[in-house]
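Reply to dn_fold:

You asked what the input looked like. This is it:
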Amino acid sequence: MRFSSKTVGLASAVVTVLIWTGFIVIARASASRGLLPMDIALARILGASAILLPWAWWLMRPARQAGAQVGSLWGLSPLPLRQTVQTGFLGGFLYAILAYTGFVYAPATHASVLMPGSLPLWTTLLAWLFLREKVAAARAVGLGFIVLGDVLVGGASLLMAFDGGEVWKGDLLFMAAALCWSSYSVLVRSQGFDAVRATMAITAFAFVCFVPLFALLAALQVLPTQLHQAPWSEILFQAVFQGVGSVVISGITFTQMVRHYGPVRSTMITALVPGLSALGAVWFLGEPLHWNLLAGLALVTSGILFGVRQAKKPAVAPTSPPTGGQP
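and this is what came back:
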């Protein structure tokens, strides 16, 4: 049974937005249910590895049989070692640790504004700095809206720090996580990596480096963990949603969405994530939605939409493939 391109594009957009939205709400809910940030990161890596690493090994099998030297990390990564380490450290290892730790300190409504909202800001600045891409006037105005929105949310948390609040720590971690993912995206774009192969590479690096290190530090009781106390159902759920869903499925559906709608319209579609995840945090987690959060959310969403709608489509399609999406 074959589906039309329109059906595949629409279904991919819906799945991507739902997973990205669910990632923020579920990660915050998980932060108060016993598992520590490193525990969730481990479950994410194991869940993604169960799918992507056998897939990567099978993908490179014909080249290996032909005698070619392909990939790295004992055939687990389809990219060379240097690129695997660079992309894996930013997009797999550091991003997950920063994001999940941020949910310990700050609510999901803050993550809704600061993580997906900051991605266009960091990506544009890094592309301008390292790829020498020009920033159009309309995009600059949109980025100004995003900065104002981030200041409204993060600035209020910094003021609360004088009263002993710790929300600002989570806000900074969310911004740092967005910076890591933007750095990974710009790196992938500059090298022209395929989205699926890049996702396999970051998963392979995280599996080879993070999993043994976690096991060693946990065995030495240097790294605290709650895995031995958590029910298997919770660990399995995190592995399936955070690993298979957030990494594998959303990476594939985001790529399909870009192929059908193009990068401009796809960015407009993903601009729904901040609003939907904030509403989800209010509805499912009972988080308050203060005026500064509403204003920041409106500014960030408007900045994304304004910058994208005013951007002119390039006359020639970009040579590098789109980067796989990942919350």
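The first helix runs from residue 5 to 30.
Hope that clears it up.
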